[in-house]
Structure formats: structure tokens, C-alpha cells
User: Which sequence fits this backbone?
């Protein structure tokens, strides 16, 4: 009986350790949601709201000096890069990192070298 209890106990410990790793959130899961970016240039605010959806689509609403523009498209994570393809067929890709307990997303655009930080809402 004692041997069976030890075996059951060991199995329980192994299962507990194994399942504890299942709660790790993937980068795709971390990305899903609404992100805000805003800066001021020559007393004018440039801002953007990025919404990444679980169906791998996105919506970007940008504003500059009171004018708004909306861009829709699809996204994917490929080779540790975020790849965004607009509905017009324009592709942007770059490195990304999460910080501040996954509340800050930093993107470095490959083509321009632009480095932006977005805050999760």
C-alpha cells in the first residue's frame, strides 16, 4: 500500500509540474488586444490605435492633426518577427519584444529602422 501511495504521489507531482508549463502565454496570445502609440511632433499629436484580433486580422486607426486614417489587414508571427500585411497588399515586418509584464510592445521596423513602443489597453 505504501509503495502504491508513493507511485501515485510521484505521478501527481510529475503531472503538476508538466501542466504548470501549459499556462505559458504565447507571443500571439500576448499580441491580441488593443495597443496605443502616441507622440508629439511640432506641437501636433500623432497617434495610432492597433487592434490585433485572434483570427489574425488587425485594424489600425491613425490620427495626425485631426485627420484619421484606417488600415485593415492580416498579421502573423514568423521567424521572431511580426509581419503585417494591409488589405492594399503593403507588407511591414519587424522585430518585436514584450516588456513591463507584457503591457509594452516594442517594434523595430526592418525597412525604416523606426523603433516604436505601444502600450496595451
Assistant:
Amino acid at each position: 500500500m505504501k509503495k502504491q501511495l508513493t507511485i501515485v504521489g510521484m505521478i501527481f507531482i510529475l503531472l503538476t509540474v508538466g501542466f504548470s508549463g501549459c499556462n505559458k502565454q504565447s507571443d500571439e496570445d500576448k499580441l491580441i488586444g488593443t495597443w496605443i502609440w502616441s507622440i508629439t511632433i511640432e506641437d501636433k499629436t500623432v497617434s495610432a490605435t492597433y487592434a490585433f484580433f485572434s483570427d489574425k486580422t488587425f485594424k489600425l486607426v491613425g490620427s495626425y492633426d485631426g485627420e484619421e486614417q484606417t488600415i485593415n489587414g492580416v498579421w502573423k508571427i514568423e521567424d521572431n518577427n511580426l509581419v503585417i500585411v494591409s488589405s492594399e497588399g503593403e507588407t511591414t515586418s519587424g522585430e518585436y519584444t514584450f516588456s513591463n509584464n507584457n503591457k509594452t510592445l516594442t517594434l523595430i521596423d526592418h525597412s525604416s529602422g523606426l523603433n516604436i513602443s505601444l502600450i496595451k489597453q
Observations:
- The first strand starts at residue 33 and ends at 41.
- Confidence is low (pLDDT under 50) at residues 14-20.
- The chain is about 20% helix and 55% strand.
- The radius of gyration is 21 Å.
